[in-house]
Amino acid sequence: MIYSKATIKSISESIGIPRLKDGITTAMAQDVEYRLHEIIVEAAKFMHHSRRTKLTVGDVNRALRVRNVEPVYGFESGRPSKFHRAQAGIDDDVFYVDDEMIDLDAALDEALPSVPPSVAYTAHWLAIEGVQPRIQQNPVEAEPDVQAGVKRQNTGNGADAVETILEVKHVLSKELQLYYECITESLRSSDSVVRATAVSSIAADAGIHQLVTYF
Fold first, then answer.
1. What is the pTM (predicted TM-score) of this model?
2. What is the pLDDT of residues 1-14, one digit of tens each?
3. What residues pair up with 164 in beta bridges, in sequence order?
4. How would you write the chain as a 3-class SS string?
5. Among 152, 205, 146, which Cα is nearest to 180's?
6. Which of 15, 40, 46, 215 has the most CB atoms in a 10 Å sphere around its CB?
7. Residue among 189, 192, 186 nearest 202 (CA)
8. Given this model, what pLDDT does residue 165 score?
9. In angstroms, rounded to a whole number, what is the distance separating the alpha carbons of residues 160 and 131?
10. In this predicted structure, which of 49-53, 111-115, 145-149, 182-186 has the lowest mean pLDDT?
11. CA distance 46 to 67
């Protein structure tokens, strides 16, 4: 049995019914086990109809309402329950959940948590004519590996203004790099057929536009 006779006796004594006979406690324990089995089977039906594999407190509460039983009130805690052993002159050990006592006066005297800021939204330019403005909302550009070039402009008052121009590093894929190596070897080949094939490939292939500056 799930519930022992000692558990039934302990519960009966807590509600003012002392000295139950062994036959009565055995019958009550069997009846409690049968009622629990009914509730669990009914809750499992709600779980399966919801296409879930985890039984929740809501499923149990719905099963209780179907059986015209008062549902379980309270809230679900994420912490596991800690059971303690109680030995109060009973033959078998009885376990109970230790509920923490909360002092309401101390809880009321505690400082209130800070109020979260209200929800707000702002608009900003992600890019203007292809140029990304350097503002806090936009991601920071990575530092280039190459040195920046320098361009001087005449401001008209005899002084030169220096403008820094960041050079863009051209990144080629491995396929294009392999194609470039093969095509340059073919162009340097002494075989005229191989050179003609390489030239026709450069002229007709539209996927090598990134390599045009290297020829």
1. 0.37
2. 677 788 888 888 88
3. 150
4. CCCCHHHHHHHHHHCCCCCCCHHHHHHHHHHHHHHHHHHHHHHHHHHHHCCCCCCCHHHHHHHHHHCCCCCCCCCCCCCCCCEEEECCCCCCCEEEECCCCCCHHHHHHCCCCCCCCCCCCCCCCCCECCECCCCCCCCCCCCCCCCCEEEEEECCCCCEEEEEECCCCCCCCHHHHHHHHHHHHHHCCCCHHHHHHHHHHHHHCHHHHHHHHHC
5. 205
6. 46
7. 186
8. 58
9. 25
10. 145-149
11. 13
- Separation between Cα atoms, residue 76 and residue 79, nearest integer Å: 9
pLDDT of residue 57: 84
Spatial distance between the Cα atoms of 67 and 9, rounded to a whole number of angstroms: 26
Q: Which pair of tokens denotes residue 127?
A: 């890019």
* Residue position matching structure tokens 């057929």: 193
Backbone φ and ψ for 163, nearest 5 degrees, come out as: -115, 125
Neighbours of 20 (CB within 10 A): 16
